[in-house]
Fold these 3 entries.
Entry 1:
Amino acid sequence: MGRSVLVTGGNRGIGLAIARSFAEAGDSVAVTHRGSGAPDGLFGVRCDVTSTEDVDAAFTAVEEHQGPVEVLVSNAGITRDGLLMRMGEDAFTEVVDANLTAAYRVAKRASAKMVRARSGRMVFVSSVVGLLGSAGQVNYAASKSGLVGLARSIARELGGRGITANVVAPGFVRTDMTAELPEKRQQEILGQVPLGRLAEAEEVAGVVRFLASEHAGYITGAVVPVDGGLGMGH
Ligand code: NDP
């Protein structure tokens, strides 16, 4: 029988590719959305991950629909780029809230049921820039590297209960987020990627699914790059 999977921000982009990949494997998959509704064939729950109340209500709805969450994929994320000297504090805290504090919210909400079941999988979608840094993305890079400390601490706290927590660090993936980048910036990025192309969302999804699979039962606290070689050595 399939597992109960929840993907935050699974209504589009990388999250949707992840959700579809689990669904194709026969799992019951729920996605959060902020009003767009659920894509065909997936169970949708309305949820802004910056709201603890929304997160709690979303989990309750998912539990009623398909049972306690056994695989949590914390994927929702935003950018609000700007150079440090011009970045307002609201731009910093807003990005950290959506990308990092939200991961704490969903992991905490998922953990009680996982501990009771003595099993569970958590995967956090970070970014290559969390480890490399990125000019103009102090807020985003800080939030994404924060996920590494968060996941590794969960791995230590809950490993004894059969729960794994891992991080996927994509490079540049073809989605709405990268489509916003100016053409010149896209060419600069491609020049630094040994594989010489952007990733497809499905390539990130495959790695997330592997980390949630039986084959990855002895992998926890890992940071797995899916970046075409961009971050090699970090
Ligand atoms: P998109 O911009 O295409 O999608 C972002 C998703 O996050 C949407 O589903 C969006 O929901 C959701 N989201 C944003 N804020 C919130 C919120 N407050 N509450 C609930 N959902 C929210 O991004 P990608 O698919 O490209 O990125 C997905 C993840 O992968 C992000 O964490 C991103 O940082 C990371 N990543 C992306 C890379 C890339 O090259 N694209 C590279 C490395 C990492 P809604 O539709 O309602 O806006």
Entry 2:
Amino acid sequence: VGPKPLQGKRVLVTAGGTIERIDPVRYITNDSSGKMGFAIAEAARNRGAEVTLICGRTDAAAPNGMRIVRVDSALQMYDAVMSNLPNTDVIVKAAAVADYRPLHQEEHKMKKTSEALTLELTRNPDILQAVGDWNADQLDADKLFVIGFAAETMDVEKHALDKLNRKKCDLIVANNVAAAGAGFGTETNIVSVYASEGLVEHIPQMTKKAVAERLWDIAQARMNRLNDQ
Ligand code: PMT
């Protein structure tokens, strides 16, 4: 048997949802279980990659055989991702990052005072955008292969291609999270993979583990093509 297909590759995967604290006992989060990101990280490990998994809040048990960095907020995930970029060859951003966080984080548990409460939110950095911008400034030989996700509920292809171009990804995995058997928390997923030239492959409903294997087949083929150029 020859070397495994991702032998020698340093793969960074983000998984799970971020937690945006309101006060010491309350936070804003989302329904990401981490299953999709974990499946991608495990498949990469099995293909011989050296894997770093950066994960937020998750329901599933964390995989073994890789370096795991636990974070809570989008700001922490941003720092963890950006500081690992120089040691990364491929990045897969399956995490569901909160776009906004509370502007003020209360030091003490908030008290009930009025009938209505307005929470002021402020924008979080877009980590994938920062990765794409960082990558654009690297020499060709040092460039990462960037795989983003796009969770959409309508006009999936249009939004996915827009995210691919804006965030400077090599591939984008579009997830119609409104479809049954796809998206947050489920055992299965349904995705369409896009590159700059358009649809690469539609992956019909299958387990997240099987989706992860197909994603790596597609990514490996494209990385090999880039290396041959
Ligand atoms: O964890 P599971 O329960 O298995 O569910 C899997 C999943 C539905 C979470 C996953 O398949 C998925 O779609 N992940 C991306 C969710 C998401 O945040 O999508 P988005 O369209 O909002 O963001 C687009 C891309 O930008 C994503 O790669 C995201 O990680 C990234 N992003 C978004 C906002 C932000 N502030 N920083 C980012 O890096």
Entry 3:
Amino acid sequence: ITVVLLWRSHEEVTTSDETERDDWVAVRLGRDQKEYVDHRGVHVVVGHYMGEANNLQNPPNLTEELLNSNMFDPRPNQGKDGQPVVIPSHELLKMQQLFHINRFNLMASDRIPLNRSLPDVRKKRCQSKSVNLTGLPAATVIIVFHNEAWSTLLRTVHSVVNRSPRSLLQEVLLVDDASTRAFLKEPLDQHVAMLPVPTRVLRTHERVGLVRARLLGAREARGQILTFLDAHCECTVGWLESLISRVAEDRTRVVCPVIDIINDDSFAYVRSFELHWGAFNWELHFRWYTLGGGEIKRRKQDITEPFRTPAMAGGLFAMDKDYFFEIGAYDEQMEIWGGENLELSFRVWQCGGSVEIAPCSHVGHLFRKSSPYTFPGGVGEVLYSNLARVALVWMDDWKEFYFKFNPAAARLRDRQSVRSRLELRERLQCKSFEWYLDNVWPQHFMPKDDRFFGKIRSRESGRCLQKPVGKGSINQPVGSATVVTCTAEPNLLQMFVMSPSGVIMTDESVCLDAPERDDSARQPKVRIMACSGTGRQKWSYSEQTFALRHASSGLCLSTGPDEALILQACSGHIGQQWQLESVPWK
Ligand code: LR7
Ligand code: MN
């Protein structure tokens, strides 16, 4: 039996040493929500799945006056210790309207003091392991923002000031990326002038996007360590020393904290698991995945040890300032938002550095479901141009794979001039993308030459195997594999990779999965589940009989009723015959 535990956003779970286990299987790891099945088959969800304030019936009228007014109105106990804010029912309508300004519950945020307390969410072993601060270099904390709310921006700054060892904090640099809100001008300058740590506000002359805003901050920084944060974060105790000590040991390390969740509705601080690392999907979107095998083993020895990650989320990390510039800073031609996180991750790994997550450093980030600000030039143009640049510079042959399945980026490909970035790659003598896949992310699901890539077609109906559509939901955490009409145009949902070891996987690290044994009464359902590396996800294919045989049960993949797939004793009948149709992409 599978017990599904649902938490409303106001009753979220905080995990502790005792409940977080390495044998949990990730079912789905969204940006702001993580779902696991634990060792007893109990389904655990961390994060939220529904913002109540977000369900607005009538679109609000966001007047200039409203946008320019600072409604910060702190109440001493609201949000204390990371608890959710409670808004009385007579204010709910107003709350819903204010939600649209920043795409988070502004009224809730504005009621929490700038110095709110947060629990020490670190593992006990992190708490007892003290970092020796003597001789450690100090950091410049750089926070770029565009039209951020007063309360979230300053709570970020105050949490840095309050919870960083003074000797490690050289200064805070705020970079205002051409915000238009009045309260982010003189009032902000005046507020930061009173802080006990040198804090300055730099301003861009026009909207330059987060990459060039961060570059402005980096060039002005006086600290030896650059530490970047988004403008809506809250740091917890111990966050900075755990990052800086790693960089001090090896200047080519880029170190990220564990990113906890600040709920966009209640502003509750929700501790996240440390069981995942960052990578990307076939659309080059950042995703969390279950930690790779080697890192899990290393973690079992010492859960306080930082672990390597194929990619960073982008906003929260520390690195040596000189190394930052030596290795090419950022691609200045990246606009507004997106792509720079993968660009930096690929570059650091391929050019001799490393990216890691320090489990003893926890920082909360406010996750939103949509972006509140404008994308001059259009969201698609901006994002896909940035991603096209990543592919063109760093991915070698795999850029063709990306462009084939992402026509929106392919259209912008020829407009990019990437010569100076390719020269950088040449000058630094960086390794290939293949090296990155083999060494940094061996668990990847990219179509390397040693594996089948294409469609899996039923010889009975001519239909194709398809991954469940959509991001899934709480009610359908794992999807059933289906057999549907094959599409002619490139369709990522119908593309599968079969590795030499017999794992049939597809985008986002999900694998064709079936129960170990024949559960005689029913025909075992074939599903698409998070890849786990276990025997229940191994298959073998016979080019003679066209059978796909499930390794641990010895049964064969068969078409079932409707669009379903089942396992049956192998008989060789037409419903058990599959054509593996390669789709070329190079
Ligand atoms: O034009 C802009 N100018 C800016 O100064 C656009 C944005 N910004 C600022 C913005 O105010 C914010 O402080 O840049 C920062 C990041 O923008 P967000 O908060 O809208 O980004 P995000 O949190 O949705 O996105 C993640 O991916 C981005 C890709 O470009 C950046 O790398 C973000 O820093 C990154 N955030 C994180 O890594 C936090 C954890 C997310 C996860 C998983
Ligand atoms: Mn952010």
